[in-house]
Amino acid sequence: RGKPRDTRFRIADLEVETVRRRVTRAGRVIDLTPKEYALLEFLALHSDRPVTRSHIIEHVWDVHFESLSNVVEVHINSLRNKIDRGDVAPLIHTVRGVGYMLTDKSSVKPL
């Protein structure tokens, strides 16, 4: 049966509850579409590690090729507007030449 799956992720003041599919930031409930939630949960599973666009497409969209579409960028932008808006420190970072990372570390540099 293995190790039980984490049911809650916390990155700074962002909390993702996987069983209830509930997301809060600084106590404020954030409404996400199913795809936005899937993307955020995937980033949370890999928090503090960069994930490539291809890896995201493969696991969130279940597609095994990288199309020319900007679907990842559109959903990342939407998540940033909902999660990183206002006077809060940004948690979703672009790692140039690599992909994206969910972290509370203020300085994110390419590997």
Descriptive account of the structure:
This protein is an alpha+beta fold and 111 residues long. 30% of the residues lie in helices and 23% in strands. The strands form 2 sheets. The chain has a 4-stranded antiparallel β-sheet, with helices on one face. Strands 5-7-6 form a 3-stranded antiparallel β-sheet. Helix 1 packs across helix 3 (71-83). The longest helix has 13 residues, at 71-83. The termini are far apart. The model has no long low-confidence stretch (mean pLDDT 87).
Topology:
Blueprint (H helix, E strand, L loop, with lengths): L7 E4 L2 E4 L4 E4 L2 E3 L3 H12 L5 E2 H8 L10 H13 L8 E4 L3 E4 L9
Antiparallel strand pairs: 1-2, 2-3, 3-4, 5-7, 6-7
Helix pairs in contact: 1-3
Helical percent range? Answer: 25-40%
Rounded mean pLDDT is 87
Walk across the major sheet and give the strand order.
Answer: 1-2-3-4
Number of strands: 7
Report the sheet-strand fraction: 15-25%
Radius of gyration: 14 Å
Q: Give the biggest sheet.
A: 4 strands, antiparallel
Question: SSE order in H/E notation?
Answer: EEEEHEHHEE
Any low-confidence stretches, pLDDT <50, length ≥5? none
Structural class, by secondary structure, is alpha+beta
Number of helices: 3
Specify the overall morphology.
globular
Span from first to last CA? 35 Å
